[in-house]
Amino acid sequence: MSETLVSLWTNVRRRLESAGVDTPVFEARLLLEAGAGVSRLDIVTDPRRPMSDAQVEAVDALVQRREAREPMSHIIGRRHFWTLDLAVSPDVLTPRPETELLVEFALKTLAPDQPARVLDLGVGSGAILLAVLNERPKATGVGVDRSAAALAIAAANAEALKLSDRIELVEGDWANGVTETFDLVLSNPPYVASNDIPALAPEVARYEPKLALDGGADGLDAYRAITASLARLLKPGGVFAFEVGQGQADAVAALAAAQGLFTTPALRDLAGIPRVVSGRRAA
User: Fold this and answer.
1) What's the Cα-to-Cα distance from 16 to each of 3, 11, 166, rounded to whole Å?
2) Which one is predicted more confidently, 282 or 222?
3) Over the chain, what HEC string results?
4) How much is the pTM?
5) pLDDT tens digits, residue range 30-56?
């Protein structure tokens, strides 16, 4: 008996459940859409549509990759973040919901009609900086990353969002070589302690770029490098905000304070974890 849309979806869901995937119902739909070329509406309104052998084989190939715990974002090449649909690849860290707190902070900091210069250190896919520029039409930004492959993804996303004329992408090691000053400096740097990476979820430990994960022995290497340059990067009264890992907020705030910057209480994510350390240079 040939597969139908609903029977194929059911089989995929069960395979994902067996593989330990957290959201098998949702991801089964995404894999059907990507592999069989169907839409969500098709699945709802025409569930008994017959599937061709080619469609079944295409879906199976994608499911095998997900069963190996390859991230969905790598399989379908896209990730939703804030209000954006972004291209992603194994060369960039997949944007995560908790990072939207950094965008939220940035948008509260910059008035909608405020001309501003924004720096994103470790820009990756461009998710943070592009989300900010997309909602602040008078802002312009610079994104720095050590990975040329990551910068290519960020450039493609900027082009797709028609933001290329308001963003400059620079290959570099944190702020080395950055000479101008900014109203806002943002970063979601690598903050996982080196020895903790193997214990992360398979999607992260096996597939995410180590360059975007490895924060050194205590997870704080990137913050040390960034805060050492932070005072010269900020205009008088300029603001900074960094995403941090669990248990790191006090240490990162102390690094910023040691450079003469004022810090504010960390913002907590939906799980109650202090997630964004922020502050400013004195006016």
Assistant:
1) 18, 9, 41
2) 222
3) CCCEHHHHHHHHHHHHHHCCCCCHHHHHHHHHHHHHCCCHHHHHHCCCCECCHHHHHHHHHHHHHHHCCCCHHHHHCEEEECCEEEECCCCCCCCCHHHHHHHHHHHHHCCCCCCEEEEEECCCCCHHHHHHHHHCCCEEEEEEECCHHHHHHHHHHHHHCCCHHHEEEEECCCCCCCCCCEEEEEECCCCECHHHHHHCCHHHHCCCCHHHCECCCCCCHHHHHHHHHHHHHEEEEEEEEEECCCCCHHHHHHHHHCCCCEEEEEEECCCCCEEEEEEECCC
4) 0.92
5) 999 999 999 989 988 999 999 999 999
Q: Which comes out higher in pLDDT, residue 2 or 129?
A: 129
Cα(145)–Cα(135) distance, integer angstroms: 23
Q: String of b and e for 228-250 (b: at least 16 CB within 10 Å)? A: ebbbebbbeebbbbbbbbeebbe
> Tokens 């509406």 correspond to what residue?
41
Q: What Å distances lie between residue 169 and 23, 30, 184, 213, CA to CA?
A: 35, 31, 16, 21
- CA 85 to chain centroid: 11
Fill in the amino acid letter for 174: W
For the beta carbon of residue 80, count every other beta carbon within 10 angstroms.
11
Angle ∠(122,127,128) on CA atoms, nearest 5: 70
Mean pLDDT across 224-231: 97
Alpha-carbon distance values, 109 to 106, 118, 168, 172, 272 (Å): 5, 11, 21, 26, 22
